[in-house]
Structure formats: structure tokens, C-alpha cells
């Protein structure tokens, strides 16, 4: 009986060992496959790291703040068989509500103020090129508006025309003052150049001095035309209104 039990035990243990063998072989196969996949991933990462600059790698190794992440596969871009044919889009993806049906060339908006192609800004050339606006177009526009103002009967239209005429008058006055100012500067520069040629030490006049000279010339013109008193009275009223804002309010007397 003991011999039979021993034979039975040995046979059962042998069967168990036989059952264990294939599972261990499968585990070994899985481990070898996973190791192969890891090796292939490492090789792909190494190949991609060849394009990374040495400075980036050194920085990542030194402090660990930078980590290299390999780029995943890029999205597939839909192509055309011919440039004159439309793009073929998959029917499995839903079409968006807003899409570009016709591929038109993109409009490029250029601002001449910030474009190197348009050259640098020179005020003298700009004023000379667009001088006709103040010499011809704005005066002609003012005459046309004056004729329309005489024929117009609507109050709203009359107010709008008067507003436009006053704007044109302001533009013409400002342009006249700018031209006088530029003429004054060119005259002063010419005098200084002549003085330097004669041996005088170069002297650059201040803006405050230029304003004083312009104000003196303006007073002479107003005095000659007889409008100096009206100008001074208007200026006095304007300064008084400015000073009135800083005056303290009168306290109300409570009974």
C-alpha cells in the first residue's frame, strides 16, 4: 500500500511539474517580447536624441528641470492629387458648420508706418508730397460746403455742414501755424550755420526761446490788425476759468 501511494504521489508531482513547465516558458516568452519592445523604444529615443543640441542635454542632466520628450507621430495631413483639385476629406469625420469651401489666397495687410519696404519717414518730404491737400482740396471742399449751406433748409443738415466747415477752418489754421514754425526753425538753423562758418561757437536754441519769439511775433501781428485787446480779454477769461477750478468752495452757513 505504501509503495502504491508513493507511486501515485510521484506521478501526481510529475504531472504538476509538467503543468508548470509551459507556463514558465510562456512567461519567458512574454519577458523576452517586453524586453525587445523596451529595447526598440530605447533605440528610437536615442535616434531622436541625436538631433537634440548638446546644451539641452547638458542642462537636462545637470538639474533635471528640462526633460526631453520625443515627438509623437504627427497628424496626417490631407493631400490633393493635383493642385487644381479639391482636398479629399474622410467621410467618417463630421463636417464643421464653418469651413473653407474655396481655398482662396490669404490677404496680407501691410501698414506703411511699420514696413521697411515703404522706406523711412521724413517729415519734410511728406509735407511736400501732401501739400496739395491744404492748398487745393480743403479750400475747394470749404467752398462747396458753403454753397450747400446756403441751399439747405434742414436744421440737422445745417448743423452738420457748419461742423464740417469749422473742422476745415481748424485744419487750415493749424497747417498755417505749422508752416510758420518750420520756416522759423529753418531760418534759425541757417543763421547758426552761417555763424559757425564765421568762427562762432555753435549754439542750439531752446524750444522755450523759440516759443517766446513766436509769441512776440503773434502779438505784433495782432496789434497791427487791431485784435490784440480781444485776444488778451479772451485769454484772461480762459485763465480765470482755469483758476476758478482750484478755488475753495464757500461754506454754507447753518442757522
UniProtKB/TrEMBL annotation:
Keywords: Coiled coil, Nucleus, Ribonucleoprotein, Ribosome biogenesis, rRNA processing. Residues 174-225 form a coiled coil. Residues 43-62 have a biased composition (Basic and acidic residues). Signal peptide: none annotated. GO terms for biological process: maturation of SSU-rRNA from tricistronic rRNA transcript (SSU-rRNA, 5.8S rRNA, LSU-rRNA). Residues 15-29 have a biased composition (Acidic residues). It is found in: Nucleus, Nucleolus. Residues 1-92 are annotated as: Disordered. InterPro entries: RRP36. GO terms for cellular component: 90S preribosome; nucleolus. The keyword Mitochondrion does not apply. Its main location: nucleus. It holds the Pfam family RRP36. Belongs to the RRP36 family. Associates with 90S and pre-40S pre-ribosomal particles. Component of the 90S pre-ribosome involved in the maturation of rRNAs. Required for early cleavages of the pre-RNAs in the 40S ribosomal subunit maturation pathway. This is rRNA biogenesis protein RRP36. It comes from Ceratopteris richardii (Triangle waterfern). The lineage of its organism: Eukaryota, Viridiplantae, Streptophyta, Embryophyta, Tracheophyta.
